[in-house]
Specification:
about 400 residues; single chain; disordered N terminus; alpha/beta; globular
Length: about 400
């Protein structure tokens, strides 16, 4: 069996800590799965694999986009598809995306290695999962995930589709922050059951809709967030008037910035958590936002790109900022050097397919065990403290952060 397809205790791994980490419950802070198991799209196993992160890894390894489309389609057999992608799969087999798939194939299906000799048998077994309670089996029985934070739903203003046995939905406020037309403004006001004739009406509609969102989401995010720079009320009001009158306006950014800050202020009073992506945005403007709303908690995805971690580093100095390693679990070793472990959220799969979650969980547990074993070996942590830190980073910190109740 390919060595990378197993979760193994290496020579520097503390065995007791490893076993403890493997036994812990976990909170999954970032998933992109279909909100209900019955919404999974029936397809062959290669289309399933390439509907998730392995596709990017194979494209990076040189797979042509046209071949990827063929592998995602239904014109070829799984054996023919494997011939298209096998060389690139081998080149990317060590990446977390492909390694997670290997782990799932091995430990969920008994497939020693994904190759031309096993692909058809793998596909036959995989297709049976569409008639099973796959979410229950993977998320609860195999991964011990208490809940997963679910992103990507399109109906944040109303009750989400998410199966609450497994998910807590996150609310996307992008359409409120960045209305693109008078029609979008009108739609938001209709949902809020308020007439719109002025900017104040829209601000009231945003307040009502955020209150609706907070009824079923404790975490909000904005995929089109502007830089949180100040915007005057008069500038925003003038730009809004131009927007709803159908005039071309170069001042929409004034609306976006004012509304974004308005919603952050409201979110603070409602005890919400805000998810941000540490994509190298101007840290000075965000630092002002973090201090302007000290009771509003910010959960920041640490960037996997070198030199783009300005925002998450505020977890070291500000009590309302948390660093989330969903995209960069290897960065935990660095952050433990200057951030209290009570401010660190370790796991989020970022998966679009259910089996991938299992592989990602196993890799995350192994990675954390390696990081904390190094801290034990260096004398920084005792075994007891390492176990306490592991439970906090995998479970307690995220559970507290995402179960936040509205402020009294």
């Amino acid at each position: 069996m390919r060595a990378l397809a197993r979760t193994l205790r290496g020579p520097m791994m503390n065995a007791k800590l490893y076993d403890y980490i493997m036994s812990l419950p976990i909170v999954d802070s970032y998933e992109l799965l279909p909100p209900r198991a019955e919404l999974r799209q029936p397809r062959d196993v290669i289309a399933e694999l390439l509907s998730d992160a392995p596709a990017s890894a194979l494209l990076s390894a040189g797979l042509e986009p046209g071949k990827l489309e063929l592998a995602l389609g239904d014109q070829l057999s799984v054996r023919e598809k494997w011939k298209l992608i096998s060389r690139h799969w081998e080149l990317a087999a060590h990446t977390p995306a492909c390694r997670a798939a290997d782990l799932a194939a091995c430990e969920l299906y008994g497939i020693d290695e994904i190759d031309e000799d096993t692909i058809e048998a793998y596909d036959a077994i995989f297709r049976l999962t569409f008639s099973e309670s796959r979410y229950e089996y993977i998320l609860k029985e195999r991964c011990h995930i208490e809940f997963a934070l679910l992103f990507g739903e399109q109906n944040s203003m109303t009750e989400p589709l998410a199966d609450r046995r497994y998910f807590k939905p996150a609310g996307d406020i992008s359409s409120l922050v960045s209305p693109q037309s008078a029609e979008e403004v009108q739609k938001a006001c209709e949902l809020a059951k308020i007439g719109v004739s002025a900017f104040d009406d829209y601000l009231e509609a945003c307040a009502r809709l955020l209150l609706q969102i907070s009824g079923h989401c404790k975490v909000i995010y904005c995929t089109k967030a502007p830089l949180p720079l100040p915007s005057s009320y008069s500038d925003a009001r003038s730009a809004f008037a131009a927007l709803i009158s159908g005039q071309r306006s170069d001042g929409c950014e004034a609306v976006q910035r004012f509304v974004f800050r308005h919603l952050m202020s409201l979110a603070e009073t409602q005890g919400l958590t805000v998810r941000l992506d540490d994509g190298g945005a101007e840290s000075i403007s965000y630092a002002e936002l973090f201090t302007l709303y000290p009771k509003l908690k910010f959960d920041i995805l640490v960037s996997e790109s070198p030199g783009r971690r300005e925002l998450s580093r505020f977890a070291a100095t500000l009590p309302n900022v948390y660093a989330n390693f969903s995209k960069a679990p290897g960065a935990a070793a660095e952050y433990l050097g200057f951030v209290p472990y009570s401010k660190l959220v370790f796991f989020g799969g970022g998966c679009r397919t259910i089996d991938a979650v299992y592989g990602r969980v196993q890799i995350a547990r192994e990675t954390l065990a390696r990081v904390l074993s190094q801290y034990i070996a260096s004398g920084i942590f005792s075994l007891r403290r390492a176990e306490t830190a592991a439970r906090a980073m995998l479970f307690e910190n995220a559970k507290n952060l995402y179960n936040a109740q509205p402020a009294a």
